Amino acid sequence: MSRHAASVLVPIVLALFPARAGATPQQSGVQPHLAIVARSLAVNGASTVPASSPHPMTIGESVTTYLFAGRGDADPLCTFGGSEERARNFGELLREYAHVWKVTRTGRSYEGGRLTFDIEWARHDDGATVPAAAARQRLTLAEGERYPLDLLRSGSPGNCKVAAVAIEVEAGTTENPALADTILQYDLWLVRQDAEGKKHIRHVVTSGKQGAAIPFDFSPFRFDVPRLIGDQYEFDLVTRIGGILRGRVNGGGRVALDLETTRSFRLERPEERATQPIRSGGRKQLDVALGEAIEVELPVGSGSTARPATPSSPALSGRISALPRRGGASPSQAVVLQGEQLVVNFGPFFEKDRFSLIVQVKKADGAEQPPTP
Amino acid sequence: MHTEILSAFVDGESVDPAQLAAALEDAAARAALVDFVRLREHARADRPSLPASLAALRRPVVMRPRLVQWSAAAALLVFVFLAGLFAPAPWRAGEDRAPNDPPPPVRVERFEPGVDWHPEN
Asked: Which residue of A has its CA nearest to B115?
């Protein structure tokens, strides 16, 4: 194509097919923030409501927070609090409190609902200027996630019976006030397509405020497990799928959707209490228009589970065996007897099944279109 | 009120006899009645009428369809045609959905093991 032709055609093509502005949390006017959370843990297991200092995360900007606890032997960890750097003098805190933390975080990016930041912290005990513990690292957390920084145990609980103080960093967001009261309705379908192509469908409807974490669950699928020996227990392989949704609509009618999904497999007998399932899960950021349906396919199951096959089979020994090497031959049989254990291999068991989620987001209460943020 | 009753009576509408009697008792209403009659006779006199000998020349009343009626019918036909193009056809197979069936998705995405999916262990 000649340069002249291209200079004419390219703008025409771009005008006919404009780039679609996708919805991102930023376009919903969401402000990411980081909070340093301090929680006291009592000797009986109770924990206090955590004290936190959320601060907006700005790319390239550093924010420092002080945390402090304890005033001597009679009050090893009973007193604790926090302040911004500009509000207190670090030297005075070292003289006044038994333990002082200095935590500095610097925002690096906010993409797809995930905050990336550098964090540097140090703990000073008994007035020492040299830290007793310190670390520096770069973290990426999804909103709502927490990461532990330090755990300080008390030598003696004191009058308040506090055994330890835990310091964590938490990623979060603050909603745009113009959109914060928007109520979104989520229609979810779980579709299982079997080997014959027939679809088995579950449907749930849920709703919640803009940006809120909304849990969802579906009733399980139960699969018969073949009987391989005469006195084998009656087993079902039960598949449960659920998760958490977070949706944010922007002024242009598009939704930034954060979909977190978990799947568990469990060999179950009708008369027994639930046993530990084999779990897997994932999290995805999606961009959809209000009213559009989007399908997300789950991967084929991998791994296996095993249970004593008969009433006379010994229980599992509890020995941890090596994980199979990557690239090795995967089991080809869906259900096998290995010794006296009944083993179900998920890959061949679900070889011809396909599981997917379909999500559709609407405004729940028919409110008028919010103003463009 | 009395004049309205008498006006309706003069126009040939059905009226309540008791109300008619009460209206005729009213002197002002009786004067209005006479005015109604005079006005009607005056209106009849304004219409030109042909003598009986020329009645054969009286043109028969012909209902001519006005141009605006034809254009309205044409517009209606165009609208029905366009509506038929865009309205869903009930006989199209495969588009009916059971109440719980999902709508067709605009696209399909996948969880990728090792990328955004942590497999079973």
From this structure: A282
